[in-house]
């Protein structure tokens, strides 16, 4: 495998032994590197520059299949004056071994070997760059044999505050789970994103806002249903942050038949996607209090904060009510520390759904939630449209709760 495109050997160059191939320093001087060792460096680097990540098996401008990469020495190839990082006790033969060579594009090679930058790019720093790059290549290429996951991102305004999260943050969260993001079932990579931030009326809970965003959600997710029916999707990863009614509707559309992981949005200093713990919280419990009444049932869920029962609209007062409340730890947006905590909440919700099916069959369920985003999605997923009555999801506006949408 060629190791450089910056020098063509002349007829006066010495002929290498068959097992050796030419490598060249930044001045174009030949340095012998064993062919197998050169290949090891190229393969370990994935054919990409260790610094800028340029693909070095073709010219990016012309697309021609030429090897543009160069093998750069971490400790200089010689001890001569002017050899970058050459003042080292490392024996000369070891300087041509893979552990002392890194794959670079010509531009980055020139940067690290320029005298003014030797202190910036010392041997230890370059070795760390090489190890990190090769570790990343090994991990990323290894994901090709690991489970793939179709990604759904839902972004909406929350109380007038624009929500934004990068695609890279989503990918990092999947890599932590040893999953590979799969966009192949979409027309393009943007089709996995449902962007609701441009819709007007979120701040005052305008009925047209809920209608428009719910319709947009259904339209964007519609292609997934066909893929699910034909078994083209094995797993879905959901990253969603929007108003609670939208998140519940999202969960209803996904239901609990599909193999779905709903990712938690961390808050505070460790913002990103993931949980705070991998085990069930010791003291966290969920208690259900039933309040007798007449009419269609109401369910309140107080987890991230308390549902203000005094703010319930007149239409919900006097109705049979089931209050689910977290106990044992203070209510807060970070109360659900792990997937097990979330599952405990959803198990309690399913028990309430079973009670509603038995005692209030076919009566629409009014839902008033104070829960984290991931919990809102999972509450929607646990609701089975074929078995349970319709959900009427309320939203807090000023000092009262108003009907936002009816799930479908």
Automatic annotation (TrEMBL):
InterPro entries in alphabetical order: SAVED
Domain of life: Bacteria
Stretches assigned to the SMODS-associated and fused to various effectors domain: 220-402
NCBIfam families per record: SAVED
This protein's name: SMODS-associated and fused to various effectors domain-containing protein
Organism encoding this protein: Gordonia terrae NBRC 100016
């Amino acid at each position: 495998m060629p190791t450089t495109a910056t020098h063509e050997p002349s007829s006066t160059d010495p002929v290498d032994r068959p097992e050796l191939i030419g490598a060249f320093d930044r001045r174009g001087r030949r340095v012998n590197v064993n062919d197998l060792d050169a290949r090891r460096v190229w393969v370990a680097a994935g054919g990409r520059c260790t610094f800028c990540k340029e693909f070095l098996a073709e010219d990016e401008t012309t697309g021609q299949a030429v090897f543009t990469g160069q093998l750069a020495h971490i400790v200089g190839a010689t001890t001569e004056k002017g050899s970058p990082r050459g003042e080292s006790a490392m024996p000369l033969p070891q300087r041509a071994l893979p552990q002392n060579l890194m794959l670079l594009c010509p531009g980055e090679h020139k940067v690290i070997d320029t005298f003014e930058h030797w202190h910036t790019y010392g041997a230890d720093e370059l070795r760390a760059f090489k190890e990190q790059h090769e570790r990343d290549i090994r991990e990323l290429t290894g994901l090709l044999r690991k489970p793939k996951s179709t990604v759904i991102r839902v972004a909406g305004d929350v109380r007038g505050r624009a929500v934004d999260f990068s695609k890279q943050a989503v990918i990092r969260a999947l890599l932590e789970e040893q999953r590979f993001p799969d966009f192949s079932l979409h027309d393009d990579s943007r089709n996995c994103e449902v962007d609701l931030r441009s819709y007007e009326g979120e701040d005052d809970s305008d009925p047209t806002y809920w209608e428009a965003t719910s319709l947009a959600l259904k339209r964007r997710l519609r292609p997934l249903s066909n893929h699910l029916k034909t078994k083209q999707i094995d797993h879905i990863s959901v990253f969603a942050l929007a108003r609670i009614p939208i998140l519940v509707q999202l969960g209803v559309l996904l239901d609990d038949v599909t193999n779905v992981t709903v990712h938690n949005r961390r808050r505070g200093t460790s913002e990103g996607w993931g949980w705070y713990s991998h085990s069930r919280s010791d003291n966290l419990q969920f208690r259900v209090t039933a309040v007798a009444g007449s009419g269609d049932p109401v369910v309140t869920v107080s987890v991230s904060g308390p549902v203000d029962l005094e703010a319930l609209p007149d239409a919900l007062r006097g109705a049979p009510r089931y209050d689910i409340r977290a106990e044992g730890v203070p209510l807060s947006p970070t109360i659900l520390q792990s997937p097990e905590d979330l599952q405990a909440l959803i198990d309690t919700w399913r028990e309430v759904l079973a009670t509603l099916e038995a005692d209030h069959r076919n009566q629409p369920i009014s839902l008033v939630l104070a829960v984290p985003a991931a919990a809102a999605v999972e509450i929607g997923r646990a609701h089975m449209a074929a078995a349970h009555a319709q959900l009427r999801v309320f939203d807090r506006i000023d000092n009262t709760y108003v009907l936002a949408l009816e799930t479908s």
